[in-house]
Amino acid sequence: MQKIAILGAGESGVGAALLAQAKGFDVFVSDRGSIAEKYRQQLTQAQIPFEEGTHSLEQIYAATEIIKSPGIPDTVPVIQGAVERNIPVISEIEFAGRYASGKFICITGTNGKTTTTLLTYHLLKSAGLKVALAGNVGESLAGKVLEGGYDYYVVELSSFQLDNMYGFKAHISILLNITPDHLDRYEYQMANYAAAKFRIAQNMTSAEYFLFNHDDAEIMNYMASHEVPGTQVPFGLKAADGLAIQYQGSAISASFSEIEAKIETANSPLIGQHNQYNTMAAVGAALLVGIAPEQIEATLGTFQNAEHRLQPVGEVDGVQFINDSKATNVEAVWYALDGIRQPIVWVVGGKDKGNDYSTLQPLVQEKVKAIVCLGVDNSKLLASFSQFGPKIVETQDVQEAVQLAKDFAEAGDVVLLSPACASFDLFNNYEHRGRAFAEAVAALKSTVA
């Protein structure tokens, strides 16, 4: 019996362990940290051997293959030791892909991949297709493959998940954008990060489709000097020759692969230019699997986006509060500021990721009437924006931040939490920050009701 060692006992690791056991492998799970109770129970119930707080190298290196969590860098000693022993190290996605009978629609990009993944899933599900949602969006692909019965898998993939995929092939792959992020994992080289993102198209033939953002400079730079497999389907907002999918007014027009369609998007709740790119990509995938344009048009209007991504969380005295806590980099905030038409009170801050805020300065000058810095160290934000006119205040308390923002705002304005920073100075993660913001808005609303 072949032995599989799995490093990391989170969602992907436990999903891979259960699938590997079902396929007849001898499975061992090792987590250097502590295992969440939910996952410990799943492993115990399945009688899969596991350990936490350590790595038993003898057991791990007895495996014929190692499946690692996407959060574990290739540079850590346990992985280096596997490489030295010529033990293949793969991702959970790679492993799950071997046993899936359905087709993969895979989505990556620095920003927008969760929205695009959820929208693609919504379009397929609403059309009555047997479709699973998996990957970086929350559930393991391995777990979904184990469930079985799906014709399509819509999979959000981070660059970390793409890194250890080798034989895996998507049937439709989507690349939304490439901007600096996670560069510490890629030797601080954008070329390395871009190459990781382009693994989304690996192993494709002309029978598969690669949808990509023709307006994105990093994508186009990479494609100018690299052969990218698959049938290429460029989408964009800027007029260009050969665009397969583009906006014409409020409608998306598509012309590729014997598809000719025009789809009105006026009923979509998604706001901002970045969501136009996300919508073009999702619509392209839906057309490729055979969903009728009128069905897509109707379904766009019933979509609800993920929490913490430009999510309306309440209105107080005519001031709308929007939770965009997932916007942890400058690019995501740029799209949020650009997409909102009303005057903005901007709540920003947290643990700085080496941000260059200069690209936001024109939008701040044009649209932002006040800034509330919610973080432990706001010095860089103060230096970047104090000269541009909006009033700036600081706080380390989310309830005070919401109250201050409300005081600056007038009826018709938007208070936007779009932090541009990691959350770890004051919160557990971006979800915790977003929930705390929404709760503070609800508390404020109750006092003025």
Automatic annotation (TrEMBL):
Function: Cell wall formation. Catalyzes the addition of glutamate to the nucleotide precursor UDP-N-acetylmuramoyl-L-alanine (UMA).
Assigned EC number: 6.3.2.9
Domain (Mur ligase C-terminal) ranges: 308-421
Mur ligase central domain: residues covered: 107-286
Gene responsible for this protein: murD
HAMAP family reported for this sequence: MurD
Protein name (database record): UDP-N-acetylmuramoylalanine--D-glutamate ligase
Source organism, top-level taxon: Bacteria
Entries under Pfam families matching the protein: Mur_ligase_C (PF02875), Mur_ligase_M (PF08245), MurD-like_N (PF21799)
TM stretches of this protein: none
One of the record's GO molecular function terms: UDP-N-acetylmuramoylalanine-D-glutamate ligase activity
Catalytic activity: UDP-N-acetyl-alpha-D-muramoyl-L-alanine + D-glutamate + ATP = UDP-N-acetyl-alpha-D-muramoyl-L-alanyl-D-glutamate + ADP + phosphate + H(+)
This protein's pathway: Cell wall biogenesis; peptidoglycan biosynthesis
Residues noted as binding ATP in the record, renumbered to the chain: G109, T110, N111, G112, K113, T114, T115
Family indicated by similarity: Belongs to the MurCDEF family.
Enzyme kind, highest EC tier: ligase
Gene3D superfamilies documented for this protein: Mur ligase, C-terminal domain (3.90.190.20), Mur-like, catalytic domain (3.40.1190.10), NAD(P)-binding Rossmann-like Domain (3.40.50.720)
Organism: Rufibacter sediminis
Subcellular location(s) per record: Cytoplasm
UniProt keyword terms in alphabetical order: ATP-binding, Cell cycle, Cell division, Cell shape, Cell wall biogenesis/degradation, Cytoplasm, Ligase, Nucleotide-binding, Peptidoglycan synthesis
